[in-house]
Amino acid sequence: MSEQNGHAEQNSVFINQMYESWFLDYASYVILERAVPAIEDGLKPVQRRILHAMREMDDGRYNKIANVIGQTMQYHPHGDASIGDAIINIGQKDLLIDTQGNWGDVRTGDSAAAARYIEGRLSKFALDVAFNPKTTEWQLSYDGRKNEPVTLPLKFPLLLAQGADGIAVGLSTKILPHNFCELLECSIKHLKGRKFELYPDFATGAMMDVSNYNDGMRGGRVRVRTRIEEVDKKTLAIRDVPYSTTTSQLVDSILKANDSGKIKIKSVTDNTAKDVELIIQLAPGVSTDQTIDALYAFTDCEISLSPNACVIIEEKPHFIGVSDLLKLSVTHTKSLLLKELQIKLGELEDDWHYSSLEKIFIEKRIYRDIEEQTTWEGVLNAIDAGLKPYKKKFRREITQEDIVKLTEIRIKRISKFDSFKADEHIKGVEASIEDVKLNIENLNDYAIAYYENLLKKYGKGRERKTEIRPFETIQAHTVAIANTKLYVNYKEGFIGTSLKKDEFAFDCSDLDNIIVFRKDGKMMVTKVAEKVFVGKDIIHLAVFVKNDERTTYNMIYVDGKTGIAYGKRFNVTGITRDKEYDLTKGNPNSKLLYFTANPNGEAEVVTITLSPGSKARVKVLDFYFEELEIKGRSAQGNQVTKYPVKSVKFKEKGRSTLSGQKIWYDNTVGRLNKDGNGIFLGSFEDSDRIIAFYKDGSYELTDFELTNRYDTDAILLIEKFVPEKIVSAIYYDSKSDQYNAKRFKIESQSLKNKYLFIREGDGNFLELVTTHPQPIVVLRSGKKKSELIEEEVALEEVVDVTGWKAVGTRIAGNDLKEASLVSETEEEGNEAKAPTLF
């Protein structure tokens, strides 16, 4: 029994030891051999083995991928499925493998055909940059039968071009793909000692905000959005998909958002073929601008990607930024180029050495000295003796191997030897040696030329596909559609979406917060829920908007301790959710006598009736809220009366005590805001409008809702609309091949409809537009940039005010290069012009 226990104890210790060592071995294996790419070539082992197998098979023709998988299995011991998936992944990136057949579609998520049906071969680019047996370090394959590369001698930042994803034990890597041409351009900049910036680029296109990219390191983030076009007021079109998302996933996310009430659409149709096209039909009465925002907020039309660049450097994982990755790649490429040059130099030196030996051996007829020799040693000695007078001409020592090689020259070669051709060959070799030495001495310039050649040879068609532009952050609760009904029990103090037997309050979103005021002078804010208790005797509830400085609450309350009535006006801009706030002085038995909520700071007039038994001489008085200053919610307020109050009743509606809303236009994101970002448009009252002029010669009137969207690339001028202002414009008329000027008043004033005010025609565009009352412009014309003629024109004097549909008056020929407004008294923001034409 004791022997068995001792054996069990020994076995237990042995298993623990095995677990400790085996787990570490396993973790190291997964990190180094499967999940994380190497810095030298940017490849994981399976990818490297695939490319090596394809190089061994390469004969210029396509090979069945099933055959490639079989060949790769000689080097990769993990089965055909993992190899097949890795080949498809490489092929879809359209860089290293020249594909043929159905290789799937990353945009739609369609999978590739079976390996037996598709073919591939190494691309010319891969053959150029990825292989060189002379500079490759080799190791035995897993079964010891063949040699495989430790890393491929890649002379290109492939890791950054293709990107990488991998999950290992305890760490992961996510390197986003970058643009082929930009990588080469940044490599050249680095070699020239200039600064560079690297940002991702995706084959699926779309738009990207890189303001938080953080050089691709941990903690960074990029936001990617699909382009959503407004086809008409009822239809939206999606023309691309964000990286790592497919059209089917996009459709599913849109339908899910619709089912949950986040957006309202009639249908979404996937018409994707050669190009991505998703058509979204909106529900009646739904705004396109708000729907676009909601699509970004609630669907995969916008996704966030968090890079985490981790690579294997000297057999250890390192977290590193993409700029440093590129620098390391450039350094590695330079070392490979140097190694290739040194190998080539050695080969050229050997060529020169042997060609010179051969020339002297034949021209000086040294081969005749061996005719009388009867032994091999005698033959070698005779040749060595014959070469002795010429040894000083050689760049290195003549070895026995060189002499043996001379004995292998055939009589036919000796008889046909051409001394002139031999001299020309040696001169050519000497010139090549000098070129190689020059390249070694100027390795930096040689590397620059190498990258420039790659860019010229393979850069066409690899331009950036993903547009870099800043995005505004869309708050989900601001664009959420009111998709649920809120009910309230005023007396018992419950609110919620499930209280259908109680009184209906209003429609709201399930993302909203609700602000509640009670008769005892307390308030709180809580999230929309099925049922929540907020306190008895509710007198007012509404959707709470954080930082709202326009909604003003007018209130009269009586202090429970002194009996004095106080009046106050206040905003509620920020709170802690589900915390109770006392709006009175906080004494017991305090209560509200009057309360209103006013969206634009309206200050009504109320009639206060005092108790009949009070000592006041005047028992009825009017109280004007406009006399009170708007303060914070915790303010005590101003004393209204010290006598007991019988009632407070509304008398008349007051005016707003707030100035108009100040609106700015942020031309980086094409949105309006109240935060002071961008161009100040002015102070707006409810009836005010905004006018936008576009490069295509149209104008559009809109309200000043912050959800409005404006195309920053197409807009020329945006400002507050003043109907009395005269619009002055200069546009190009392709039919008459000239520039026309016109002045007019805005007549058609329907909101969110574009009106073309220049002559309709292909190639017509708006050059300049202004609402300055006395516009003076400078016209610069001429055939050559260096010989432009300037002309100053007062448009008010030469162009009459006509209807907005008029063609206008000729003001310049087709050689106009630029038109600019130079009025000294022009108001800020009242001038816009198109880019210079030359």
Could you describe the 3D structure shown?
A hairpin with a 7-residue loop joins strand 12 and strand 13 (278-282). Strands 40, 41, 43, 46, 47 and 49 form a 6-stranded mixed beta sheet that branches. Strands 25, 26, 28, 31 and 32 form a 5-stranded mixed beta sheet that branches. A 4-stranded mixed beta sheet has the order 14-9-8-17. The chain has 17 helices and 49 strands. The chain is of the alpha+beta class.
CATH superfamily of one domain: DNA gyrase/topoisomerase IV, subunit A, C-terminal
Shape: elongated
| SS class | alpha+beta
Mean pLDDT: 88
- Largest beta-sheet details: 6 strands, mixed
State the low-pLDDT regions, or none: 1-11, 824-838
Helix content: 25-40%
Instruction: Tell me the number of helical segments per DSSP (H or I, 4 or more residues long).
Output: 17
CATH class of one domain: Mainly Beta
CATH-defined architecture of one domain = 6 Propeller
Distance between the termini: 99 Å
